[in-house]
Amino acid sequence: MSFPTSLPERPFFNLDLRGFPDTRIRGRNVVEFGPTPYLNREMMKTGDYFRYKFRTGTVQEWYLVNADPSSGHPYHVHVNHFQVVAYNQYNGPVASFAPAYYDQQGFLCDQQLEDFDPLEAPEVIPVNLTYLGHETRDRGMAGYVPIGQWRDTIIVPPLASITIRFMADEYPGTCVIHCHFLNHEDVGMMMVTEIVRPWQSIRGAHVTSGGFYPGTCKFFDEWPDVRKNSPSGSL
Predict the structure, then answer these.
(1) With b meaning 16 or more CB within 10 Å and e meaning fewer, what string describes 184-209?
(2) Omega into 118 within 30° of 0, i.e. cis?
(3) How far is CA 31 from CA 12, 66, 140, 164, 179, in A?
(4) In terms of Cα–Cα distance, which of 23, 74, 78, 29 is closest to 207?
(5) How many CB atoms sit inside 10 A of residue 85's CB?
(6) Each residue of 189-224: pLDDT tens digit?
(7) Which residues face 65 on adjacent strands?
(8) Can you tell me whether residue 12 is helix, strand or coil?
(9) DSSP at 118
(10) In angstroms, rounded to a whole number, what is the distance separating the alpha carbons of residues 183 and 180?
């Protein structure tokens, strides 16, 4: 039996997307890990409660952020593998277990989450920024992925922001996203998105939680928060 001496060519949907023109990206989304078991500021509801919708054949740019100040979370997505494009400076909120979100100076955010109870959340707290600063990938922590690699799972360190890109190939339907710590997933740290055909609408997704955008702290924060003035996908 002879073995091949070279690797097969990558399929077109797994080509290098790092240099893909920004103007041709047709969807941007934020996936935010908060205090366990919150993902995008809610716990899993139903299998048709879609938090984001996107079309087949489009290149997507998503930002994976972790507001948890003390624990990394492994992001796992079904259907389409993604390419790691960048580790970014984290400018987002810091989660507490109230649950509530604070800015990095310790002041209460005005962008909160569905289960926020103002009676349980002080206006100011000391925040833990020990693990802030993953954009250079030199914190000596296990799990950093080389830029350009393709994955279906990646550790998002505490207080970190990672840019990924992928092409939504030919498969429409439900796409599940969850923390790959199964004890976190099993108590609700998961959500569903929907992939639709090119001619179908992407309206109607539950992107916010109680009107608040994941990844933000103040009402004037850009969303997605790590790219200013990003063009939105067509409807």
Answers:
(1) bbeebbbbbbbbbeeeeebeeeeebb
(2) no
(3) 25, 8, 24, 11, 11
(4) 29
(5) 21
(6) 999 999 999 999 999 999 999 889 999 999 888 876
(7) 32, 161
(8) helix
(9) G
(10) 8
